[in-house]
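Fold tokens
===========
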Amino acid sequence: MEPQRLSDNYARVQERIDAARQRAGRDDEVRLVAVSKTQSVEVVAAAYRAGMRLFGENRVEEAGPKAEALARMIAPGPPPAWHMIGHLQSRKAAHVLPWASMVHSIDSTRLATRLNRMLEEEKAGRALSILLEVNVSGEASKEGFARVDLRAAVETISALPHLRIEGLMTMAPIVADPGQARPVFRDLRRLRDELAATFPGVRFHHLSMGMTDDFEVAIEEGATIVRIGRAIFGER
């Protein structure tokens, strides 16, 4: 993709984010994760030069080498932040630690416990920011905690010293009309508010929800992080 087209796409997405915030009467920040999965490091470098500073990846095998290569390409400039937004298998947990500053897709206490143990073994004293993925729609094809299991999961995971819960994430159903996803986004916000009241020591300040087809509706319902790929990078 041409750098100018990337820059134009990015600007249009930012305009749409700002318009959605205004419609909702919000003055807080909405963070844009540019979903760079399957994109070459050259394309991501062009996106970086267009102003993007936060990228999201789905596959750990692809993300680590891409992050390293990009850092070399843009040096001495500051490297961007990288988020893991796709399903993470416990057996691949170690591969996400070198590059991800946040994992959106914590969907089991087993995965959380494994990440915490690996961070403890590093003996670096760091904590990884995480979001708990919730299967709000109840679709069998989607990952995430069921509603009934969420409170127990928070009790367990919030006690792990090397993980820092910062909110919730969900994947809305694929629907013809973005407005049809609104109840899912609204339900996640309500769940977040309930958990924040139940666990005042946990910072439930982020809601990662909304992608290219429905991010404006997600913002109107309280999204603080949106994950945008196609509207920036085009069709894969």
